[in-house]
Amino acid sequence: MQNKIPKFTFHLSDPCSEKYRGIELDGEIIHWIDDTEGFVGMFGFTHDMRGAGVSPEQYIRNEFTNHREFDFTACMQAQIIEYLRVHSKRFIQQYGKQCEKWLAHHARLRAPKHEVCATCKIRPFCSH
Question: How many structural domains are present in the chain?
Answer without folding.
Answer: 1
